[in-house]
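subagent[fold] <- orchestrator: predict structure for attached chain, return tokens only, no commentary.
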Amino acid sequence: MLTPKIHELTLDHISALRFLEDHTATLSYKDGLHGMSDLLTARVADPNGLWRSSFAPAPGALMSASLGYAELPPLHCGLFEVDQPSFSVGSGVDVCTFSAVSAILNEDLRKMRSEASEQLTVAQMVAKIAGRNGLTLRGAPPATMLERETQRRQSDIEFLKRLAEDHDCIFSIKGDQLVFMPITDLELQAPSLFLDLEAERVLDATHQEVGRILSAEGSFNASGAYRSAHIHYFDGPKGKELEYRLNAEGVGSREVLEIDERADSVSHAQSLCRSALSNANRGYKVLSLEMTGNPFAIAGICVQAGVGFGKYAGKYLLWESSHEISGDSYKTKIELKWCQE
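subagent[fold] -> orchestrator:
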């Protein structure tokens, strides 16, 4: 039997574990793949008022943690910034809560900008923004050439999110890292976890049991799926506007996705259609599961749902995970989206 454990919890780089030894503590970590900050929340019993005194971390304090099982390597959650310290008193239990976000946003990241770039690849544009914000780029943004791209009254955060969605990529800021990479790079990975619904087991890549399925839900979203995408683009050599259409595979829908944006070239049209179709159809099949705590279930890995899932069987990308340890209980929830291979 594995023993749930909070391996580390630091506040401004100082370990807070020794202050938790005599108090009930709950630690939760939410790990997202795209367009959201990771969240770290600690809830601590506070019978003596220690955690609501001047000792408590103020907004802006740095917080880090690792969790999992005593017998296994921990899941390192990363570096966070406290943004919502709070407390509650009632029913004889005083509780203090510290919520923190992974995106440590400086003023430059939040600043509204209006600027146009020409003859840059997506990779060059992302690298430029990472550099001016002092962030380390993680991932391999596509080398797609952009004739012209305009950041119009948008912060760098908003612009990067749009750029990622236009080119079928994921984007997030985790601590001092800017993560930007094609979703297909993640979907082409071999599955790291296998789900056996009939036996209620979670297996690793070697098919060893690493957890139990506690509950599972699945859904089809045919109304939000499309069989093809259609866009207009300007053909410079011919000096006129043309149309481009791209068909999707394996989607039971007759709907056509009309893209209300004019592309600069046929390659730009292809990229926008491919990205729009992928973004729309990725939610065609989704699974939500709760399992016994699993420190290996993190956003960005692939998961194979076995034949016991019926028409929901197949390969999925883990889009979001939530981990919570409270006392001797450790549970993990995951959100999965269908891989379009």
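orchestrator: received. Logging for downstream: The mean pLDDT is 86. Residues 186-221+284-338 form a domain with the Elongation Factor Tu (Ef-tu); domain 3 fold (CATH 2.40.30.150).
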